[in-house]
Amino acid sequence: MLARATREKQRAGPWSDVEIALIKRLSHDFKNGLLRNVPNGTSIRPWLAIQLRCHPMRISKKFPKESDLLGIHNYTFDEELERSIPTAVKYVRDLELQELDDKFKAQVVLERAGKFRQRRRRRKAKPSTSTKIVKDEPTKTHEKPPVFAWHSHIDDVFHEFKAALALESVEHIPTTIDKEAAQCMTMDCSWTTNDDFVLAKSFPLLSIDAGDATMIEDGNFVVFL
User: Fold this and answer.
1) Element (H, E) at 220
2) Quick one: where's region Disordered (predicted)?
3) Element (H or E) spanning 148, and its range?
4) How many other CB atoms are there within 10 angstroms of residue 26's CB atom?
5) Is 105 domain-assigned?
6) What pLDDT score was predicted for residue 137?
7) pLDDT of residue 120
């Protein structure tokens, strides 16, 4: 009971009645050695900060060092005192502590939900700074419909190029191509009527040998020599 994760996001802000009631009960049981799951030698202020999911300085600002709640105190479990408490009393005390802890957890959930809604409203209220840029499509000459290819073998890609570009042979197609080119590619081709070379849009994952092809400056086209 009352085990907390040490890496939870730390809470801040004003203290609620539920939080004050919980820290007073925890401090009382800590100083009297009645917490069975706290290791001996644990310092009170860091331990209380973990239970309340806040920074230790938040507790120090609320409660002075000379108060009964804090002070310099390391935990020591009082086994003799714990055994002397009647079972019925232990049961009631455990229920009371669990009820305080449940109320505190519910408060934390509400706090986080409120902060989430605030962030969401701020995001919605923030004006969009992005502008959509529409580029004019370049004028193409001698166009044909796009050719779709799905291949697992590079040789098939060469034959697809040949069919799409109406070449008599694949001798001018470069032979240095990335082995991972086995994927679905859209080949939207433009070309001239000159049989010596073909001007085509660059294709994803193609690695062209410098002796076989030349990249135009903008990188959008490849000239197959």
Assistant:
1) none
2) 118-142
3) strand 147-150
4) 22
5) yes
6) 57
7) 58
Distance of alpha carbon 62 from its chain centroid, rounded?
Answer: 35
**What range does the domain containing 175 cover?**
147-224
Mean pLDDT on 208-214: 39
Q: Residue 34 is inside which H or E element, if any?
A: none
Q: How many domains does the chain have?
A: 2
For residue 14, the model assigns a pLDDT of 83
Q: Is residue 11 part of a domain?
A: no
Q: pTM above the 0.85 mark? A: no
CA–CA separation, 78 and 34 (whole Å):
6
**Distance between CA atoms of residues 62 and 56, nearest Å:** 10
Does residue 160 fall inside a structural domain? yes
Structure tokens belonging to residue 219: 């990188």
What's residue 34's pLDDT? Answer: 92
Tokens describing residue 130: 């992005």
Number of H helices, E strands in the chain: 6, 5
Q: Give yes or no: residues 112 and 187 share one domain.
A: no
- Decide if 73 contacts 30 (C-beta within 8 A): yes
Q: Which of 164, 168, 167 is nearest to 149 (CA)?
A: 164
- ∠ CA 61-66-68 to the nearest 5 degrees? 95
Cα–Cα distance list, 96 to 26, 33, 35, 59, 137 (Å): 11, 17, 14, 22, 73
Q: Which residues pair with 54 in a beta bridge?
A: 11
51 pairs with which residues across the strands?
A: none
Reported residue count of the chain is 225
